[in-house]
UniProtKB/TrEMBL annotation:
The protein's role, per its UniProt record: Methylates the class 1 translation termination release factors RF1/PrfA and RF2/PrfB on the glutamine residue of the universally conserved GGQ motif.
EC class: transferase
Positions that bind substrate: 206-209
GO terms (BP aspect): methylation
Alphabetized GO MF terms: nucleic acid binding; peptide chain release factor N(5)-glutamine methyltransferase activity
Release factor glutamine methyltransferase N-terminal domain span: 24-96
Annotated positions binding S-adenosyl-L-methionine: 139-143, 162, 191, 206
UniProt-listed Enzyme Commission number(s): 2.1.1.297
InterPro entries: DNA_methylase_N6_adenine_CS, HemK-like, N5-glutamine_MTase, PrmC_N, RF_methyltr_PrmC, SAM-dependent_MTases_sf, Small_mtfrase_dom
Name this protein carries in UniProt: Release factor glutamine methyltransferase
Pfam families: MTS, PrmC_N
Keyword Transferase: yes
Organism: Candidatus Macondimonas diazotrophica
Length: 304
């Protein structure tokens, strides 16, 4: 009769056949992760990531070298990674990296794990005709948006701002590894405060936008609270950025913001009230209203 009690992965790997081949380790891992990963497909993908990471292999090698026997050190490394994942740690933190746009980024518990919906923000920003190639990413975290923009537009001068020195250190590490360190400038500070007024053609931001009572916070406790929570309503940081970005943008410069799925009407209203023109909302790849854009008028006081 199959055992219904969840098996700790370390036990599972300890009681696994010895010698243990890579393809058998993959099968055991896939079964073990099925409950944690959310779907069989996600479990299969995570099992490949974890095993490849434990062995120091590219994923493709798992298939071409499936008969390779794991050493005791590799078995123990794999058990430790699987333990962390089964304890609920996000797979990106367990691996220490994640994919974003066309980049692989180092992530640590000091940085938010970049989300797929933010890739849509990057796509929208890349389509805008901006009046000058000075660009700022406010709340850069791991550098996801800033580095994706810099990689796609070699002529843009990208400024990555964050108030977290620890997050900026990770973003700089990513920039160096991706060969983008000469093209992105990293600045510690509070939103627009450290930036030169009237100079930027594009400002992008994916700021904290959860209210401090949001029930989803319980599920997100591995990520830094300062990257997630804006205040009592969730709109506090978005409102501050919309207000202060007017001074930093040059005329006809664009502001592109990610927001919560139900915040679109409020964010667009804030943009209009604060005098932006060409305000519009955009959906992410999953069809949720997640991105708002607006353009600075020739004279920001015109419609304020
Ligand atoms: C939701 S995370 C986004 C990180 C990254 N842009 C991404 O999409 O993965 C928000 C980021 O804003 C930063 N942040 C929060 N308050 C800030 C402030 N007042 N000034 C600058 N950065 C801030 C946090 O440290 C965090 O890195």
């Amino acid at each position: 009769m199959p055992c219904k009690t969840p098996i700790r992965p370390s036990n599972l790997l300890r009681s696994a056949p010895d010698p243990l081949q890579a393809r058998e380790a993959l099968r055991l891992l896939r079964e073990t992760l099925a409950g944690q990963a959310g779907s069989a497909q996600a479990a299969a993908q995570e099992a490949e990531w974890l095993l490849a990471h434990a062995l120091g292999w590219p994923r493709s090698r798992l298939w071409s070298h499936g008969e390779t026997v794991l050493t005791p050190q590799e078995r123990s490394r794999l058990a430790q990674l699987a333990e962390r994942r089964l304890a609920g740690e996000p797979v990106a933190y367990v691996l220490g990296e994640t994919g974003f746009h066309d980049l692989t980024l180092t992530v640590t518990p000091d940085t938010l794990i970049p989300r797929p919906e933010t890739e849509q923000l990057v796509e929208i920003a890349l389509q805008l005709a901006i009046p000058t190639p000075w660009v700022a990413d406010l709340g850069a975290g791991s550098g996801a948006i800033a580095l994706a923009l810099a990689a796609a537009r070699p002529d843009w001068q990208v400024h990555a701002v964050d108030r977290s020195a620890a997050a900026l250190a990770v973003a700089e590490t990513n920039a160096r590894r991706l060969g983008l360190i000469e093209r992105v400038c990293f600045i510690e500070g509070d939103w627009c405060a450290p930036l030169v007024p009237g100079r930027f053609g594009l400002i992008v931001a994916n700021p904290p936008y959860l209210a401090d009572t949001d029930p989803h916070l319980a599920m997100l406790h591995h990520e830094p609270r300062g990257a997630l929570v804006a205040g009592p309503t969730g709109l506090e940081d978005l409102a501050r950025i919309i207000d202060t970005a007017r001074e930093i943008l040059m005329p006809a410069g664009w502001l592109v913001l990610e927001h919560g799925w139900d915040q679109g009407p409020n964010v667009r209203q804030l943009l209009e009230t604060m005098g932006y023109q060409a305000v519009s909302g955009h959906k992410d790849f999953a069809g949720h209203d997640r991105i708002a854009i607006g353009q600075r008028r020739a004279d920001p006081k015109e419609a304020a």
